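Section 5: illustrative case.
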């Protein structure tokens, strides 16, 4: 059976998750997945214990479901996609173990497969962890040819053995290397001082704007609540937790739930509260989740959010819509959703359609801060 047949829906049907209602045809795999699987089927058919990194929607673990696969992902949405696609293809009983990017790697591995992430720092952090495994485990990485640079190959050479590359097929390429037990640490987490405060922010490799305060958060901080009200706050899509951290600093009686779909983001947010406001840890929850799924009727007083407008390489507003819809369900009557977004995204119209109201709290040439109140 060819990889094209497997990934084209015969016998498997694979979907992105959560399903984008406007773009249901978005493909849940790419040519790099196809190339990687073709090579594995031809050259590593006997491998039984396979470690897979960055399998976005489960194309690899579904195709290799007859093996014992351990899938490592930083994304909670990817975890849901594995479950969804395995069950949809009657593979729910397959030996697929799912680990977060913060979990310890298994040591009994025959083969390692990597989908090369766009985030070069994440790749370096992952290769550093692989460098601590026993020597001579084959490592095969796959990605778009245009995104495999000299720096990519240098990372493999630094942490593993000297890599070789395949010819490009359908604009994708494979990188071949092996573990070497070099046991080299990466530079992550990175830390830097938060301007105009005494706080030091720690950032794991896959945290958005890990090397400095992003300009959106810098602007949003000017429009955070302050005072002594005992508000129940959610920092939705928290990243390194800077918005929730500053909210705690401004509001001594608030509680904050930090939510992100990235395990590295949630870990970074927790570390930043522990390191900077240890006396407030008891006022916090740290949750890796798909937006606010399961938080209906949570009774939140305030939800703070800087919604993303892309998923992997796809530009889409369905994640923002999911956040807004679920925020409304999670708020108490009279509760507030306060967001920041690029002005061209026209979130003002979206909030008016959903909440029946929207107020501009501030804007500049790039961003706008909006508030919507849940009314009966």
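Designed sequence:
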């Amino acid at each position: 059976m060819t990889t094209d047949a497997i990934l084209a829906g015969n016998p498997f049907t694979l979907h992105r998750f959560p399903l984008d209602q406007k773009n249901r045809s978005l493909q849940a795999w790419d040519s790099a997945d196809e190339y990687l699987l073709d090579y594995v089927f031809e050259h590593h058919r006997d491998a039984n214990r396979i470690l897979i990194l960055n399998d976005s929607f489960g194309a690899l673990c579904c195709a290799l479901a007859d093996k014992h696969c351990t899938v490592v992902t930083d994304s909670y949405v990817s975890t849901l996609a594995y479950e969804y696609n395995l069950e949809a293809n009657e593979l729910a009983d397959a030996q697929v173990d799912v680990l977060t990017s913060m979990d310890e790697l298994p040591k009994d591995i025959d083969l390692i497969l990597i989908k090369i992430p766009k985030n070069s720092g994440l790749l370096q952090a992952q290769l550093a962890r692989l460098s601590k495994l026993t020597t001579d485990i084959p490592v095969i990485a796959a990605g778009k040819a245009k995104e495999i640079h000299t720096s990519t190959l240098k990372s493999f050479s630094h942490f593993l053995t000297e890599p070789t590359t395949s010819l490009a097929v359908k604009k994708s390429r494979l990188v071949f290397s092996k573990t070497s037990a070099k046991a080299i640490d990466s530079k992550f987490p990175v830390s830097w001082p938060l301007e105009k405060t005494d706080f030091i922010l720690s950032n794991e490799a896959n945290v958005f704007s890990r090397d400095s305060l992003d300009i959106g958060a810098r602007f949003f901080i000017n429009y955070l609540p302050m005072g002594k009200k005992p508000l129940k706050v959610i920092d939705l899509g928290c990243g390194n937790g800077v918005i929730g951290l500053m909210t705690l600093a401004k509001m001594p009686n608030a509680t904050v739930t930090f939510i992100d779909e990235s395990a590295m983001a949630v870990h970074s947010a927790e570390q930043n509260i522990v390191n900077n406001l240890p006396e407030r840890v008891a006022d916090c929850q740290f949750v890796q989740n798909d937006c606010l799924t399961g938080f209906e009727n949570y009774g939140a007083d305030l939800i703070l959010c800087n919604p993303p407008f892309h998923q992997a390489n796809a530009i889409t507003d369905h994640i923002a819509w999911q956040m807004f819809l679920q925020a409304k369900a999670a708020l108490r009557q009279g509760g507030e959703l306060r967001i920041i977004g690029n002005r061209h995204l026209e979130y003002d119209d979206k909030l008016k359609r959903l909440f029946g109201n929207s107020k501009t709290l501030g804007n500049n040439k790039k961003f706008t801060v909006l508030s919507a109140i849940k009314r009966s």
